[in-house]
Write a structure and sequence with these properties.
Elements lengths: L1 E3 L5 E3 L3 H12 L9 H9 L21 H9 L4 H15 L4
Antiparallel strand pairs: 1-2
């Protein structure tokens, strides 16, 4: 049987007999046994690929910051935006003006 992909490619699928032979060969390989339900469950617990989900409480803004302040936060390595946010939160906790 042949099917067409979204990109227009023609894909030839194996016949049911060929598929059964492929499956039997795969199951007989002791070095590549099928995964157990427990192994599959562990796989699903891993974090999905891509950008991590945010807290949903942050808002994107444009902000002008002195170059030396920005370089200092960035110079400390990854996570500089989180550290800058934490520093602002700390300042707010000691300067409640709202």
């Amino acid at each position: 049987m042949q099917i067409k992909s979204k990109s227009g490619r023609t894909i030839t699928l194996p016949t049911p007999e060929e598929d059964a032979a492929i499956t039997a060969a795969a199951l007989s390989d002791p070095d590549n046994l099928p995964w157990t339900d427990e192994q599959l469950a562990k796989l699903k617990l891993k974090r999905p690929r891509g950008r991590p989900f945010g807290s949903g409480t942050k808002e994107q803004v444009t902000l002008r910051i002195d170059r030396e302040v920005l370089e200092s936060f960035k110079g400390a390595g990854e996570g500089w935006q989180t550290r800058m946010n934490d520093a602002l939160k700390d300042w707010l906790s000691t300067h409640k003006t709202l």
